[in-house]
Amino acid sequence: MDKLNQWLTLGANLGVILGIIFLALEVQQNNELIASQNRFNAQQLVNEYTSVIVTTPDLSELMFALDSGDQPLTGAETMRVSQYFRGLFKSMEWSFLELPQEEIPLVAWQSQSSGRLHRMYWARLRETLNPDFVAYMEANTAIDGE
């Protein structure tokens, strides 16, 4: 009987150890899935603001007119473009604050930030953004504080 109890205890302990190993594997898979979802969400944020320009021809025309300097924009038009950039920068700021460093879509940000309008609106809006995000962007993209 004593031998049987020892074997049952050994089996129970082995079951507990296997359960812990299984749980660790499940947690790891869940973490990988969450990281993948975070990368996808960050890319969706980048795509969303890019697609706004493509799918909204009048906004594209406003931005082109502003960039070329050919014609002054009305107050409403200026506000619309400003709100686009405010949303873009806030979206980028959220990604910077919420995502691990290696998941930040820096290459996309670098390509977006090279335009004159991006730099112009950055100069106007940078004071409304998180100082760590501002420092990161100014160190890693074409945007600067001027």
Describe this structure in words.
There is one protein chain. This protein is mostly helical and 146 residues long. It has one domain. It is built from six helices and no strands. It has helices at 2-55, 57-68, 75-98, 106-112, 116-125, 131-140. The longest helix is centred in the N-terminal third of the chain and has 54 residues, at 2-55. The model has no long low-confidence stretch (mean pLDDT 84).
N-C termini distance:
83 Å
Count of helices? 6
What's the β-strand tally? 0
Class from helix and strand fractions: mainly alpha
What is the average of the pLDDT values?
A: 84
- Report the major sheet: none
Summed up, the domain count is 1
Percent strand: under 5%
> Secondary-structure element order, as H and E?
HHHHHH
Q: What is the gyration radius calculated from CA atoms? A: 25 Å
Query: So what's the overall shape?
Result: rod-shaped
The parts where pLDDT drops under 50 for at least 5 residues are none
Measured as a percent range, the helix fraction is over 70%
